[in-house]
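Quick one: structure tokens for this chain, please?
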Amino acid sequence: MDEEVFFNHIMAAADPNDALITANAQKFNALRQFLQDNLTGLQVTRVEAGARIPIYITGHQADGNCIALTTIAIES
């Protein structure tokens, strides 16, 4: 999945009337900006496995090293 699609979905799904959700969306937006500023070839991989979905965000540093971040989405 393209990182833009992933992060845009998070931002679009945030309920502006829910302060906690809005704050989390802003954190994801800051993460997105950091990743875009520091890595190339960003890619998001979701491993569909029920309600707990592992998500891996990968990219490359300027020196060629690959960086991977992982999180879990809870979907019901």
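The helical segments are 3-13, 19-38.
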